[in-house]
Specification:
This protein is of the alpha/beta class and 203 residues long. It has 6 helices and 7 strands, in the order ααβαβαββββαβα.
Length: 203
C-alpha cells in the first residue's frame, strides 16, 4: 500500500461506527464470511443510480480493505441503473487520500486505473450499468449504495444477496465551498465502514 494511503487508513476510527450502521453492515459481513467458509470466490457489486460517486468509492475502499486484511479471492465491482461518468471530484479525493489514479481514456466516460499498491492489479473505474458485461452475472452480492437505486431496482438478476448500505450523496456539496470537505468525509466514512466489514472476517 502506498505510504500516503497507509497513513489515511491508519487514521480510520472503526470504533466510531454506530450500532445502527453495524446492523446495516452485518449482512455484507455474513455474505463474505459464508463465501470464505465455503472456499468460494467473493464478488461484490456496489450499485448506485449513476455509478459516478458512492458506488465507486465503495468499490475502491472495499477492495483495499479486503487486501489490507488479507481476505482472499475478493473482487469488487460497481455499476449504476444508468451510465454517466466517474465524477472528477471522486478522482481528486482518492488522489488526495493516497491513491495513484491513471486516466486510460479521454472520452465522455473516461476509464481510470486506480492503484493502491505497486504490485497489485488496480481497480478499473468507469461508469457502467450494473449488468454491464464487465461485471459478474451471477454469484455476487449487490450492495445498494443509494436509496434511489435501492428503491428503483427491486430485482438484480444473478445476485445471491441484495443488501442496502446507503450513503448520503456528496453531490449535495457540488459548486459550494464545502465540496472538498464533504467528498473527503464521505470517502473516509465509506473507507471506515468497509474496513470494519473486512476486519470482522475470520479466516
Amino acid at each position: 500500500m502506498y505510504s500516503v494511503l497507509k497513513k489515511t487508513t491508519e487514521q480510520l476510527q472503526l470504533q466510531t461506527i454506530s450500532e445502527e450502521r453495524k446492523r446495516i453492515l452485518k449482512p455484507l459481513i455474513n455474505f463474505v464470511q459464508q463465501k470464505i467458509n465455503n472456499k468460494e470466490p467473493i464478488n461484490i457489486n456496489f450499485i448506485c443510480t449513476h455509478n459516478s460517486r458512492r458506488s465507486h468509492l465503495s468499490q475502491v475502499w472495499a477492495q483495499v480493505a479486503a487486501t489490507h486484511f488479507n481476505i482472499p479471492n475478493v473482487t469488487c465491482y460497481s455499476g449504476g441503473t444508468e451510465e454517466t461518468a466517474l465524477f472528477p471530484k471522486v478522482v481528486e479525493t482518492l488522489t488526495n487520500q493516497g491513491f495513484i489514479v491513471l486516466k486510460l481514456s479521454e472520452t465522455a466516460n473516461p476509464i481510470y486505473a486506480i492503484k493502491y499498491s505497486d504490485n497489485i492489479l488496480p481497480v478499473i473505474g468507469f461508469s457502467k450499468k450494473y449488468d454491464n458485461l464487465f461485471n459478474p452475472i451471477s454469484k455476487f452480492a449487490a450492495i445498494m449504495t443509494c436509496s434511489q437505486a435501492d428503491n428503483g431496482c427491486p430485482f438484480i438478476a444473478g445476485a445471491e444477496e441484495r443488501i442496502p448500505i446507503t450513503f448520503e450523496d456528496p453531490k449535495i456539496s457540488d459548486n459550494t465551498a464545502e465540496q472538498t470537505k464533504i467528498y473527503s468525509e464521505r470517502s473516509l466514512q465509506i473507507a471506515t465502514e468497509m474496513f470494519y466489514v473486512f476486519s470482522k472476517i475470520e479466516l
